[in-house]
Automatic annotation (TrEMBL):
Family: Belongs to the cytidine and deoxycytidylate deaminase family.
Keywords from the named record: Cytoplasm, Hydrolase, Metal-binding, mRNA processing, Nucleus, Zinc
Alphabetized PANTHER family for the sequence: C-U-EDITING ENZYME APOBEC-1, MRNA EDITING ENZYME
Names of the cofactor(s): Zn(2+)
Protein name per its UniProtKB record: C->U-editing enzyme APOBEC-1
EC number annotated for this UniProt entry: 3.5.4.36
CMP/dCMP-type deaminase domain span: 10-134
């Protein structure tokens, strides 16, 4: 439906698309923007068609809003497979993680993959446990890569004509750092990544501290991607 000239006027997804500035501001891994954004895709059975929506936090978190809307709108036929993909600017907090785990556990025909731009308060043990519980419930959690940014841009962003390939390229280091920390979380290791923000100049800093347990347990490809092993 989209051509190389921007999403066409007849594109039914147009009104659900977000503006380029909003995508960039929400999904920049270096920004610690408070607002969370969820871009969702739902596929039914073997149909290649995806139902796409975008959402922001309201009085409740975006994840809760999705679950509420999904469960109230759809009478789910258990025989039909349903694949859900989320692109989240922040990984789910522990309360949302609990609700999501419950949501998928009650629906064996639903699969959920979550791509996150950043890890939300990842030093907090409850949030770490929440992410582990998600994975135990069968949810796949991954950090967004450049190809995910490209996918979101083409399918969720109201980009300008000719800008189909104009998705923001963020320094890959951030993806690597968050992927490394996500490995630590899922392996029940202590945090190795500390992120801080200097408010005067709006810069985000990180500090990486690896202990022996990290070197022993983190898969070598993840370590080497972070330049921590040769
Ligand atoms: Zn939440």
């Amino acid at each position: 439906m989209t051509s190389g000239k921007g999403p066409s006027a007849g594109d039914a997804t147009l009104r659900r698309r977000i503006e380029p500035w909003q995508f960039e501001a929400s999904f920049d891994p270096r920004q610690l923007r408070k607002e969370a954004c969820l871009l969702s895709e739902v596929r039914w059975g073997v149909s290649p068609r995806a139902w796409r929506e975008s959402g922001l936090n309201t009085t409740s978190h975006v994840e809760m809003n999705f679950i509420e809307k999904f469960t109230s709108e759809r009478s789910l036929r258990p025989a039909v497979r349903c694949s859900i993909t989320w692109f989240l600017s922040w990984s789910p907090c522990w309360e949302c993680a609990r609700a999501i785990s419950e949501f998928v556990r009650q629906r064996p025909n639903v699969s959920l993959v979550i791509y996150v731009a950043r890890l939300f308060w990842h030093m907090d043990e409850q949030n770490r446990q929440g992410l582990r519980d998600l994975v135990t419930s069968g949810v796949r959690v991954q950090v967004m890569s450049d190809s995910d940014y490209s996918h979101c841009w083409r399918n969720f962003v109201n980009y300008l004509p000719g800008q189909e390939a104009g998705w923001p390229r963020f320094p890959p280091m951030w993806t690597t750092l968050y992927a490394l920390e996500l490995s630590c979380i899922l392996l029940s290791l202590p945090p190795c990544l500390k992120i801080s923000r200097r408010h005067q100049n709006q810069l985000t800093f990180f500090q990486l501290t690896l202990q022996d347990c990290h070197y022993r347990a983190i898969p070598p490809p993840v370590l080497s991607a972070a330049g921590l092993m040769h």
